[in-house]
Each structure stands twice: as C-alpha cells, then as structure tokens.
Amino acid sequence: xxxxxxxxxxxxxxxxxxxxxxxxxxxxxxxxxxxxxxxxxxxxxxxxxxxxxxxxxxxxxxxxxxxxxxxxxxxxxxxxxxxxxxxxxxxxxxxxxxxxxxxxxxxxxxxxxxxxxxxxxxxxxxxxxxxxxxxxxxxxxxxxxxxxxxxxxxxxxxxxxxxxxxxxxxxxxxxxxxxxxxxxxxxxxxxxxxxxxxxxxxxxxxxxxxxxxxxxxxx
Length: 219
What we know:
Low-confidence stretches: 203-207, 209-216
Number of domains: 1
Order of helices and strands: HHEEEHEHHEHHEEEH
Oligomer: single chain
CATH topology: NADH Oxidase
Helix content: 40-55%
Shape: globular
Number of strands: 8
C-alpha cells in the first residue's frame, strides 16, 4: 500500500491535470513514506444505546450528540471508535524537511494526510471482516457535520489513545501528532446507505478552496 496520489494532489489543491514533474515528485515522496513508516491504529466496539441526549456508547463514556450521529446510527446497535496516527516519527520527518526544502515539505505533508486515511481504511476493513456479514456505516469524525470536536477527549480516553498511540490534545482539541484521525463507524444488521457525502456535511465547507474555485473534491 501507498498513499493515494489523487488524494495527495487534492490535499495540494491541484485542480485538473497536474504538471508531470509534480506528480512524479509526489509519487516518489509517497513511495518513500510508505516504505519507511506505517500508520498505526486502535479501535474498540461498544454496544449502542439511543437516548434523548444522543447515541451513547455503553461502557465507553461517550455520547455522540447531534443530527449527524442520530442519522448515521439510527439502525445500529453497536459502534466502533477508531483512532489512527502516523506518530511522532512523521512529525520529526516533516519538521526536518521544512528546514531543508519547504516545497518538498508541503508535498510530504499532503502525503501524510493521505497515508493516515489509508490506515483508517485498513482499520475499517478489519472491522468489516470481524463483524461480517453485518453492515457498516460510513465513518465520520468529531468536527464533521454537527458532531462536536469537543468529544475528542472522551473518544481518546475510551481508546486509551495517549498510552497506546502517544496522542495528546491541545486546549482547542487538536491532536498531536498532527497526522492523527479519530472516527466513528456504526454496525447494523441492515444495509447502510452512503450518508456523509458532499459539502453539506464537511467541517471545511466555509473555508474550502475547492468551493471558492467553483469545484468540489471527490467526496
């Protein structure tokens, strides 16, 4: 596996066909990253209780509030919490690259964003195989739609992510290492439609470069 180059180019805000040299450089950096650093992830699956406050993960100390969680999990009786990170090794590599070559560092940063998503995909496949033939919802994260970013401390505590993955939170709920992702995936006996697609659910919709330019990203 390697970071998805099309995703890397989107993180670089490339529209249309990129210059051949840029694609070649992105492919080279992505390959080097994949050869030397693998995403790490942890997840836990909790029974789900639907309450007036929201979707409560029994035994997890987490209640998912808002319309997004309600819609996503309405037919689910369990949900997985997931955290994936590239760790501090990537942070150190990125800082070193910024000192030597800022242009390369920008591409490396985009590769890191795409690479941690590949790790999330791998975790999702593992959950799907573990619970087959049941169905999974799309994964969604705190800060997406109306699911508050303030849930991050409870999510990370439920996963023991500080001890297991070395993840820390700032006062504004941003994670360190920066290439870290938390997500929720519902588990149901019923087939699940794709619900979290399009600009309406995206936390970046008000500041999105694609929308400002009159286009959209692939999701």
